[in-house]
Amino acid sequence: MLDAAFINQLRAIAPRLHQWMDGFRQARVLVVGDLTLDEFLTGEVERVSREAPVLILRHELTRQIPGGGANAIYNLATLGANVKAVGLVGKDGQGEVLRGIFTSAGIDTNGILVDGDRPTVTKTRISGHARQSVTQQIVRIDRKSDDPPDLELQLQLAAYIRQQIGSVDAVVCSDYGDGVLSQPVIEAVLQHPCTIIDTQKDLHRYAGATLFTPNLPEAEKAAGYAITTSASLPQAGHDLLQLTQAEQMLITRGDEGMSLFSRDGSHETIPAFNRTDVYDVTGAGDTVVAALTLGLIAGASPIEAAMLGNLAASLVVRQFGTATTTVGAMKTALRSLLEP
User: Fold this and answer.
1) Cβ neighbours of residue 243 under 8 Å, at least 6 residues apart?
2) 28 pairs with which residues across the strands?
3) What are the sequence ranges of the domains in the chain?
4) For residue 250, which of 34, 93, 129, 271 sits 20 to 30 Å off, Cα-Cα?
5) Is 14 exposed, middle or buried (0-12, 13-18, 19+ CB in 10 A)?
6) What CATH homologous superfamily does 4-36+67-121+145-338 map to?
7) Distance CA 284, CA 317 (A)
8) Measuring CA to CA, which residue among 313, 254, 331 is closest to residue 71?
9) Which residues of 181-217 are buried (b: 16+ CB within 10 A; e: fewer)?
């Protein structure tokens, strides 16, 4: 439950939050990311194989959705933004599926290049169930390459970014460590005055970006110490701002909410809007980044934009697997929070 003081604060700014959400459709965003296809294969367990002590599944359903940096792109599109996607896919069926999903959602895919030497990053989760029982994940199969993209591809991505950078309101980097965010690409990205960085490691590579959104483990890794006390949290915020020379640092802390630190020394904490109906946090960080970015573009202050990110994430964690939300759902959720 949110305390009464915060509810009153939220009620006071609710009209502005609605205004910013109405402005999402005007936003133009370039997203550079490690594109992943998430596959979910489900079947019913028929018996144990005679060939080996393994289960035999009768296939029922295959679901394919954007994951990794592709999830950040898809979240922005479902929230109504005009999105240009930049990244790499392999010369394979998974890359074609991902591009097709984007095209159907109205996403500009001209910045997605084909890497003939590396596969599309694909994470296949195989789940099974017995009759009248709960479906459970059995194994996950990852297809990816640890080799960096060819230098020529890196330079082509950087050139495309420089060509498009003047036509967008913000640039988002979704770095899952799969090689798209190379140094030439990062240098091109940082030419934009509004850059939002979501990276699992090496925050210093993006020094000079506008805002970073590490989760708690990522912030601890970057700071070099555990963030476990009321004193270590603001210290980490200060140290990470020094490390990155950013305007703001938003540390997302799960059921503890999120804390926003600014270069002027101020910091504010937003409680989690949903602490009970949490089924799967996969991809919630991508949702935070999407709503936060669109809020900033629409004119929200950093703390208001963070509240929009918090609100959007409170919805996707109620769903299993990588998920997205909509402005309509966010408005409904905000009304529910404010009900007496």
Assistant:
1) 203, 204, 207, 222
2) 82
3) 4-36+67-121+145-338
4) 34
5) middle
6) Ribokinase (3.40.1190.20)
7) 6
8) 313
9) bbebbbebbbebebbbbbbbeebebbeebbbbbbbbe
pLDDT at residue 50 above 90?
A: yes
Q: How far is CA 52 from the centre of its chain?
A: 39
pLDDT value at 293 more than 50: yes
Q: What is the pLDDT of residues 170-219, one digit of tens each?
A: 999 999 999 999 999 999 999 999 999 999 899 999 999 999 999 999 99
C-alpha gyration radius of the chain: 20
Name beta bridge partners: 56.
47
Which pairing describes strands 195-199 and 211-212: parallel, antiparallel, or unpaired? Answer: parallel
Show which residues are catalytic: 286
pLDDT at 85 over 50: yes
CB of 286 closer than 8 Å to CB of 305: no
Q: Are 174 and 286 in contact (CB under 8 A)?
A: yes
DSSP letter, residue 306: H
CA dihedral sign, ordered 215, 217, 222, 224: positive
Q: Which residue has the tokens 């097709």?
A: 100
Q: What average pLDDT does the segment 324-337 reach?
A: 90
Nearest-angstrom CA–CA distance, 137 and 125 = 7
139 beta partners:
126
3-state helix, strand, coil split of the chain in percent (to 5) is 40, 30, 30
- For residue 129, give the H/E element and its range: strand 121-129
Nearest to 259 by CA among 248, 268, 246: 268
- Alpha-carbon span 251 to 261, nearest angstrom: 8
The pLDDT tens digits of the residues spanning 234-285 come to 999 999 999 999 999 999 988 888 999 999 999 999 988 765 554 444 567 8
For the chain, give the mean pLDDT. 92
Which sign does the torsion angle of CA 35, 208, 165, 83 carry? positive
pLDDT, one tens digit per residue, over 105-154 is 999 999 999 999 999 999 999 999 998 888 899 999 999 999 999 999 99
